Structure formats: structure tokens, C-alpha cells
Amino acid sequence: MPTLDWIGKKAVLNHHRVVPYHLLKCDQKLSVGDPGSGNLLVQGDNLLALKALLPYYAGRVKCIYIDPPYNTGNENWVYNDAVNSPEIRKWLGRVVGAEAEDLSRHDKWLCMMYPRLMLLREFLRSDGAIFVSIDDGELHHLRALMDEVFGPRNFIATIVWQKKQSPQNDAINLSDMHDYLVVYAKRAKQNRDDPHGWNRNLLPREATQDARYSNPDNDPRGPWTSADYTCNKTADERPNLFYAITHPVTREQVWPSRRRVWAFDEAGHERNVRENRVWWGPGRRTRPRVKKFLCEVREGVVPTTWWTREFAGDNQEARRELRAAIADEQLDFQTPKPARLVKRILEIAAGKDSLVLDSFAGSGTTGHAVLGLNKADGGSRRFILVEMEEAICQTVTAQRLTRAIEGHNDLPALGGGFRYCRLGPTIFDETGNIRAGVTFGELAAHVYFAETGEPLPKRTNGKTPLLGVHNSKAIYLLFNGVLGDRSAGGGNVLTSTVLRALPAHSGPRIIYGEGCRLGPARLKRERIVFKQIPYGIKVS
Ligand SMILES: C[S@@+](CC[C@H](N)C(=O)[O-])C[C@H]1O[C@@H](n2cnc3c(N)ncnc32)[C@H](O)[C@@H]1O
Question: Which of 22, 102, 301, 320 lies deepest, with the highest CB count within 10 Å?
């Protein structure tokens, strides 16, 4: 596969692996509504935030939507990764793209995107998909990058979205009217019969689509519309579709053209006649048409790659929505997307109870769209949003979500809630030891993820050392005196007494603890693998 190279690439290829795990700290004062709704707004650089979220949500997200900086050269996007390699430092400025003529602008953007996409991929369920907003500035780079991260076989589509109605008369060249959505699945279906992989949902039928159906002949099957009786094949290609049909009234022999033959063979046509599916029109029309009944059409409409502003909103609509949702003095947020755009993505790519992730949250459109859809169809979708800029996060994102939840002037109250979180310190300190203050629950999530690559099956209440059973192996954590004081470090050391106190499991056991006083023969007999914390906790 051809791959894209850029300055700094080597240094970022494995960068996502060395990003440290931070703790997430929730701020009750900035959290709003029902804390059990499962929605999160995280303030912080998404590289660190995604890594911190991974132990809790790896493999759980059905739909990711991101709208990263487009790197137009007019933005002031901040690149603040703690990347210490001299090569990266050479190529990554703190503020990128401030000058359009910066020749390494695209390298920097690619360096910013690569590790984030690598992490985002880990959040997707096996039947999940990612949608990325972009324009022509980086589309070609993004496609190559996504091929590398998600695999070219998992490319689904590039959607064209009409973002504007009126052309810009002062455009230097052509007036730019559209953006793109680049779509990849974690695993795309490789053919029509492939039972695995991403399934797109059909879009709900609109009333205007149903209005095309009527019932001029009072057919008992109800409203229908008529479609062409021919297909795009020649008589040479499909000789069995080139035959004469008898007009039911005039008894004339009606032939298709040699360049476009009937869509049905003779047996199919006779079945259509028996089932009253051939429509010759009210007069003496000489060409047949086939009746398509509303009751037989699919529940919905196949989504296309062509999204007009009538279908998915436009930039103007997005600005109007934002104006309605945040205080006037905060209106300098320039790049919101319309909620209808995100709603369309969710209709196609999420279920009613799916988890949705947006790690470049901006004004919180994704959260607003999730709340709106839940209200409309009684769904229980949840969102995770990440926004780096504290000022935007508090005064735009959080405020918009609050007003969407509680209602404000003409905005209806959609209900729900969200927890507002910030990045806390890293789990391990500079010497590799577990940082003081890390709770049993925090370390448990980390240990289970390190061992299995999956989140804890259910949040621990901190009262049992048994974290879960994975592939028939039970995983235990002895930390912070979880067993109460059974001596030897308050139960953090595996002794015979501690072993007897562990919840039983008949299969193999993996036990993490501060120390172990059982000999190798005993561990083998009991089918125990002991791993010492912190050194035994290894996440790739
Ligand atoms: C184009 S805007 C997204 C707009 C959003 N779709 C909306 O409808 O409002 C990109 C957002 O990503 C944020 N951002 C940029 N780099 C980030 C990073 N490394 N981590 C988290 N957020 C970031 C910016 O502050 C900005 O608010």
C-alpha cells in the first residue's frame, strides 16, 4: 500500500503508546443534571484525555465524530503535546498554522493527528465507525492517514456536505461551498454477504418521500408509485430480457429498445401481470411501468454521499443554533457545525443506546445532537466530549449543554446531564511508583485494562479484590487494604491468609499485589500468576 511520509512521522508513529495515563477528576460544581446519564465533558488536550479514558471505554464506542482544526493557515490551533524527541521539537511549534506560508504546516498537522487517530481507533467497537469533518486543505492527507490507521479495506465513503447556500463573490478563485466527512469503519463489510463488520442504518423516511405514492387504481395494497420497466443492459448482453410484451388493451406487441432491455425475464413479467404490478397508465400508453408499493419499500432510505443543506443543515444554521444556546458575550466561537449534520451521522452510525465520542468538541454540537435525538425517540445514547481550551469548554461547551438540558428561552429542555472532568495527575510518578492518592477503583480500571485490553466489566465498589473474570482467568488486585487488615501490609501482600480470604475461582488466577510470600511451587499448584505492582502493570 502506498503510504504518506512527512517530517516528524517516525517520531509520532509510536507516540500514543508512551503518552502517560492520567487520572480524570470530576468537578461537581460544573457538572449538570442527572450524573447517572453517562455523559462526560472532559477539559484537556485530547491526546492525554483519550489515553486517560481508554481504560474505561476501550472497544465500547459505536460512533466517533471529530471536527479537528482544518489547518487552513488562518487558525491558531495549539499543538501542546508533551513530545520530547528532539526531532519532534524541531518540527512542532507550540502554535501551528498562524502563518499560512509556514511550509511545514502540513507536517505539523499530520503529527498532531496521527497519535490521536491511533488512540481513537482503540475506542471503537468492532461494529463501530468514525466520521471526520475536513475540507480540501487536508482531505488528501487525511485519507492517506486514515488508510494507514484504519486500513484501506475499512474505508466507507467520503461524503460531500453543502456547508453554504450563497457563493462568496469575493473568492479569489472558486467559491468554496462544501466540506467533507471522511468515514471509516473499524471493520467494513468486505462483500454483501459478509456477516461481520459495520452495518449502516437506513435513514428515516421523510413525509416528502412518502408523498410520491398514490393509489389511482384503488389497489387494495395501498399507495404505490411506478418505476421504469427497463434496465441498463443491452439485448446482446441479456438476450433473455429482449422479448415482446402484449399491451392488455390494444393487444399490440411492445418491444424494449435493443440498448435498454426489460428489467424482468418472461417468467418475471408474467408474475407481475398475475399480481397486477404492471401499470400501463390511464390512457393507451405504449410503455409499461412497474408498481412499487409503499407497504413493500424498506423501512428507511439508503444514505448517500451527497448531503445538501436541506438534508443536514449549513454553517449559517449552526451559528443560529449556537446563538440561541450561549450568552451573547461568548459568541466568538467561529466554527460550529449544525446539529442536523451530527444527527444524520448518528442516524446512520449509532443505535438508540450507543456511546458516541467527539474529541474536538468545540461548542458541543455532538452533545446537543445526542440529547436531542434521545428526547425525540426515547433513546439512551451517551456522549463523551473532549475540549482542550478551558475558556471554550466552560463558557461555550458546558453552557450550551446546560441550556440544552435545562431549557433556555426558545430552547426546549431536553433533560439528561453531564459530568465535567479535568485531567488529574498521572497514575504513576516520575519514578514509576503509584502516585499517592490513587484510589482502588482508579488502579483497578488500569490493572484490568492492562491485563485484558478491555474495560472493567463493571465499576468496582472497592470492597472486593476480584475485578472480573476474563477468558476464564480471574483477575484480583490487592491494593489500599481492600481486604481490610489481614496483616502483611493490610492485605496488599499475597500470603496464605490473604489467599484464603480471596473470593473463590476454580480456574487460573492472576493476582496483582505489592508482594508475595507464596513459593513458586505453591503458586503453580494453585494455578496463580502473581504480578507485583507497580512493575507488573504493563499496558502496551
Ligand atoms: C473545528 S472546532 C470543532 C467544532 C465543533 N464540531 C462544533 O460544532 O462546535 C475544533 C475544536 O477542537 C478544539 N481542539 C483543538 N485541538 C484540540 C486538542 N488537542 N484536544 C482537544 N480539543 C482540541 C479546539 O479548541 C476547537 O474548539
Answer: 22
Burial 391-410 (b: 16+ CB within 10 A, else e): ebbbbbbbbbbbbbbeebee
pTM for the whole structure: 0.85
Which residues touch 366 (CB under 8 Å, ≥6 apart)?
Answer: 65, 342, 356, 358, 383, 385
Model pLDDT for residues 517-532, shown as the tens digit of each residue: 999 999 999 999 999 9
3-state secondary structure of 459: coil
Domain covering 9-204+302-426, topology: Rossmann fold (3.40.50)
* pLDDT tens readout for residues 72-96: 777 665 554 444 444 445 445 443 4
* Cell numbers at 227, concatenated: 418505476
Tell the residue nearest (CA) to atom 14 of ligand 1. 360
Q: Per-domain residue ranges for the chain?
A: 9-204+302-426, 208-296, 440-532
Task: State residue 97's pLDDT score.
Answer: 38
Lookup result for grid cell 488502579: 443
Query: Ligand 1 pocket check: which of 133, 346, 388, 392 to mutate, most ligand atoms within 8 Å of Cβ?
Result: 388
Looking at residue 101, its pLDDT comes to 43
Decide if pLDDT at 369 tops 80. yes
| pLDDT at 398 exceeding the cut of 70 | yes
d(CA 126, CA 25) in angstroms, rounded, equals: 29
Q: What is the mean pLDDT of residues 385-403?
A: 94
